[in-house]
Amino acid sequence: MMRLLRSAVARWMIVVPAIAVVALALTWGRHLLGFVVMIVAVLLAGAILAAVHHAEVVAHRVGEPFGSLILAVAVTVIEVALIVTLMVSGGPKTASLARDTVFAAVMITCNGIVGLCLLVGALRRRVAVFNAEGTGGALATVATLATLSLALPAFTTSRPGPAFSPPQLAFAAVASLALYGLFVLTQTVRHRDYFLPVGPDGTAADAPGEHAAPPSAQAAMTSLGLLLVALVAVVGLAKVESPVIESSVESAGLPQPVVGVVIALLVLLPETLAAVRAAQRDRIQTSLNLAYGSAMASIGLTIPAIAVASIWLTGPLLLGLGATHLVLLALTVVVSTLTVVPGRATVLQGGVHLGLLAAFLFLAVSP
């Protein structure tokens, strides 16, 4: 029975990206009726799930930590495409969209995904165990990137408002790329063992299912192609849905930054599902690789892309966080440090991180 179910799911994961692309071609640039909006939303969710499935197939083929890196970069491609597309078509009201989306991604990954995975792992084994050396390095990189790109613009004086001057923006973009590239080199080459799953005693260990036969090269290449198709469908259908999202936020009387939160929640759904699945298999290190890797890619790749796009974008590019978000960022870094340093976490740490995410979401709706 389970084999038949898995076979049916695998077939759907092949069909859904194709259907989503067809729907994208039929709906692009058109005003959609209510029932069509619902159909597009369902196909968008299906394309996201398909992207998760095919990214995991590719990840299983290449192994850790390359698999986590693939999914993190794939998610960031979606995020960058959505931000640039909406900023081009949205006018002055989208000047802070990049900041709102990137900060929302940082809070969702560092508090939401991390907290949820630690909670799942601790409930399963009482204590969630991971490699503090690798995870600590990832957290340090995320904190540095967030400070350079999101905190400093609120204090610089070269340009009025929470914005970088062109030279400052260029420096932030180059520094972000350099730090992200250095982390990738550390994670995949020089200290790869720091990012592999560990056992209860803190030493490297295999998780259940780790020795399942990896997919063939042909299957992995097929999944890679379908992953690209699914990502195109996700970006396109999200763009089709974006007017509905923006009008819904406006009609509900919610602040404009909520749009960035919705985008971040949407694009991070694949990452969240993959991370929780890893936590359920006692692979907490893989979950943390996904969470911090996604936060790092969200800043380290998005800010340079937005910096390049700003050459053609009209209006200011607001990157500096307000006082409330600066406090939340500082608290997140402190709590995350205390969580990571021991290399072990209980349900308490998971609950604290989820509490911080809840505070961020509440203050986004009611600033």
From TrEMBL:
Sodium/calcium exchanger membrane region domain span: 33-188, 223-364
Keyword hit for Transmembrane: yes
Protein name (record): Ionic transporter y4hA
Keywords tagged on the record: Membrane, Transmembrane, Transmembrane helix
Membrane topology summary: Multi-pass membrane protein
Compartment list: Membrane
Keyword Plastid: no
Sequence intervals crossing the membrane: 12-29, 35-54, 66-90, 102-123, 135-156, 168-186, 219-238, 258-278, 290-312, 318-340, 347-365
Source organism of this protein record: Actinomadura alba
Highest taxon of the lineage: Bacteria
